[in-house]
């Protein structure tokens, strides 16, 4: 199994403007401060939760700032709790008011005009979006093409998803330390982001008939899943190993196996968790929750229900037997 990925939690308070600008450059993107005005003492506070390249930051600052940034290397989303933000890029403009979510345009410099604000910034590795986009038939490099969510209902979906992930990041014994769970979480966030915010996958024209992998490629896909179930693999990884496309793999799993690659992978991981529970000495202190998390099951309750449906008993009973 892969090593756990630590979650870094930090609280920072800045009273020196230059130190805070250096933090913003290091964390988000290169920037040039064009203007800075504040009443009284300068202050910026940051509460941050980070797991590898993924992070959520709650930021408050007391300044009216005009800044010009370079392109953001990660896909970045901003929720404004208080204050005002105006951003410009590629001739377009977006204004945040309290309660608004927005996404920064991909791979382009941005100008910001921010008044004293309280916001949440969510940063996702671009690779997570690319993996999900590939399964939707977009292999050309996904880009966000608009700032605002496509509808109020979609925005609520994003807000609920982010709140849940934040609760997991902030948990004392967070399951997101486990590589498989972290990867599943990133795929979920990426999938929701591509559903909520305008992007190139929405304009992708799907051609009928994805083709099929052939018996040999399907066997290669199955073997790859068997050999790599302990790793945070994606549908794109499976397709690459089989020498075909993500859509063709999905099509043939449905056609020949009446399932999806993701569900098949979950079944294999459930089998591995069952084997580990059966072989573990309960006196070592190993718990069902630990075993479930190692195999990508973040919720002990969901794992127990799935386990019982397949094996007719509880995982705790298997561990004690």
Automatic annotation (TrEMBL):
Residues 219-321 form the HTH araC/xylS-type domain. It comes from the Bacteria. Pfam families: AraC_binding_2, HTH_18. It comes from Streptomyces liliiviolaceus. Keywords: DNA-binding, Transcription, Transcription regulation. The keyword DNA-binding applies. PROSITE patterns: HTH_ARAC_FAMILY_2. GO terms for molecular function: DNA-binding transcription factor activity; sequence-specific DNA binding. The keyword Lipid metabolism does not apply. This is AraC family transcriptional regulator.
């Amino acid at each position: 199994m892969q090593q756990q990925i630590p979650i870094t939690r930090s609280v920072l308070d800045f009273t020196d403007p230059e130190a805070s600008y250096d933090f913003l450059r290091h964390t988000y993107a290169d920037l040039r401060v064009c203007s800075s005005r504040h009443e009284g003492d300068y202050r910026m506070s940051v509460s941050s939760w980070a797991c590898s390249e993924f992070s959520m930051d709650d930021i408050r600052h007391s300044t009216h700032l005009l800044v010009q940034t370079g392109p953001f290397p990660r896909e970045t989303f901003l929720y404004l709790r208080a204050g005002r933000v105006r951003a410009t890029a590629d001739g377009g403009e977006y204004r945040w008011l309290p309660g608004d979510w927005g996404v920064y345009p991909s791979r382009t410099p941005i100008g910001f005009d921010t008044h004293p604000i309280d916001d949440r910034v969510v940063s996702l590795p671009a690779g997570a979006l690319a993996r999900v986009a590939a399964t939707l038939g977009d292999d050309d490099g996904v880009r966000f093409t608009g700032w605002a969510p496509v509808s109020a209902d979609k925005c609520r979906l994003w807000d609920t998803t982010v709140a849940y992930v934040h609760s997991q990041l902030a948990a004392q014994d967070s399951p997101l330390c486990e590589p498989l769970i972290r990867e599943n979480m990133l795929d979920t966030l990426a999938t929701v982001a591509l559903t909520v915010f305008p992007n190139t996958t929405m304009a992708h024209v799907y051609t009928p008939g994805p083709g099929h992998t052939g018996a040999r490629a399907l066997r290669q896909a199955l073997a790859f899943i068997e050999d790599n179930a302990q790793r945070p693999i994606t549908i794109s990884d499976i397709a690459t190993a089989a020498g075909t496309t993500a859509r063709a793999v999905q099509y043939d799993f449905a056609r020949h196996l009446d399932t999806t690659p993701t569900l098949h992978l979950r079944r294999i991981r459930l089998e591995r968790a069952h084997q580990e529970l059966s072989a573990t000495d309960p006196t070592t202190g190993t718990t069902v929750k630990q075993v479930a998390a190692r195999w990508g099951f973040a919720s002990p309750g969901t794992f127990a229900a799935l386990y019982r449906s397949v094996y007719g008993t509880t995982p705790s009973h298997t561990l004690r037997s």
